[in-house]
Design a protein that fits this description.
By secondary structure, this protein is an alpha/beta fold. The protein has helices at 9-21, 27-36, 38-41, 54-63, 66-81, 134-144, 161-169, 183-194; strands at residues 88-95, 110-116, 121-127, 151-154, 173-176. It has 2 domains: 2-64; 84-194, Ribonuclease H-like superfamily/Ribonuclease H (Nucleotidyltransferase, domain 5), CATH 3.30.420. A 5-stranded mixed β-sheet has the order 3-2-1-4-5. Helix 1 crosses helix 2, helix 2 (27-36) packs across helix 4 (54-63) and helix 6 runs parallel beside helix 7. The protein starts with 8 loop residues before the first helix and ends with a helix.
């Protein structure tokens, strides 16, 4: 039957990833991408029953555990880029424009992102949960990615002992911004500048 075809998980994930990189916004776009690139995809995917349907893409992604999928994707990216020794990795939070809905009371989606500067690649992203702030999201992001040997840069929001401790624990260096949000340390640094 047309609707009981079996597909390999690897094939589904690769097509979905490539489709999103190419600008896909939904399940139908993933199917259409696969159909339009079938000849090329057959060079490196098995595709025993052709391109999965949009419903298949949807059902598979509904079953995936997002945190585990995110970890596996981060591991794959780390394998692709290899060593990030001495690479600058800025970690920063941004709100996505247009992601709010005033009528439904939905706030902007706010993400914290780790960017591999030299490779021009996102190493990982974590959503800042409602009623939370970037600090907890930065900690979650640092747990998610391998930063061994990297130089992490964070703005003043991330200048927290917990965050710095985790960076050092993961064998990376850091450059953090110091502002008056830490009055004692800030006043000491100001005195050192004057002398």
């Amino acid at each position: 039957m047309e609707r009981t075809k079996h597909h390999l998980l690897k094939d589904i994930l690769v097509i979905a990833l490539l489709a999103v990189i190419a600008g896909a916004h939904g399940w139908e776009d993933m199917e259409n991408y696969g159909i339009s690139k079938l000849t090329w995809l057959q060079k490196f995917l098995k595709l025993p029953n052709g391109i999965p349907s949009d419903d298949t893409f949807r059902r598979v992604f509904e079953k995936l555990e997002p945190k585990i999928f995110e970890q596996k994707l981060a591991q794959w990216i780390n394998q692709l880029i290899g060593s990030i020794d001495q690479e600058v990795i800025p970690i920063d939070g941004k709100s996505l424009r247009g992601s709010y809905d005033r009528t439904k009371g939905v706030k902007n989606l706010h993400l914290v992102t780790a960017w591999a500067s030299e490779h021009r690649l996102v190493l990982g992203q974590v959503k800042v949960e409602d009623h939370s702030n970037e600090i907890t999201a930065i900690l979650a992001l640092l747990e998610l990615i391998d930063i061994t040997g990297a130089i992490i840069t964070i703005d003043a929001m991330g200048t927290q002992t917990e965050i710095v401790r985790l960076i050092r624990q993961k064998k990376a260096d850091y450059v953090v911004t110091l502002k008056s949000n830490h009055p004692t340390l800030y006043s000491v640094s100001q005195k050192d500048e004057v002398q």
